[in-house]
């Protein structure tokens, strides 16, 4: 059921920074789904496709769709709620609970995520999130790992993942929920490692040293069963 057109546009614009952060993890995936739904013109598709960075690509994609028409904006909101998008981008769970009619642009979605993120995480069975170890680590796997890292996350970030203290401080400022901070840290590691960010590599790092995680918490990264 379609929402009020102007309200949908206001809602998407208010959530734009968060959506850019989340969707930049796989900008091409989002672009192809948006194109399949004809949410942007062929000319706009080519413009977005040739953006140099994922962040720029997602930013332009959102701008083109939101500015095109209220129908396109509604189509984007519906797309973000689709199972394929929700599965690929776990942090999009908050979109399902956004209320177009009651949402205020000034109201942060943190309260919604605080209620929903833990509930949604419970339905992601870690042992079923499998990889052959040589594949690049997925968003779902990172989220499952994030659940297992406690208050020593900063030490793990600095000593194990080689993430700078400045970056960790920025992550802490940007996210109020613990699991979101850890998830953001792991995504940062994946971005830095690029094609080396495999599930097996992450498992190896988190299995060594004083900050090693328990095998039962991370073995799903290398087990296919």
From TrEMBL:
Signal peptide: none annotated. InterPro entries: CARD, DEATH-like_dom_sf, Death_dom. One of its GO terms (biological process) is signal transduction. Residues 138-222 form the Death domain. It comes from the Eukaryota. Transmembrane segments: none annotated. Residues 4-82 form the CARD domain. This is Death domain-containing protein. It comes from Nothobranchius kuhntae (Beira killifish).
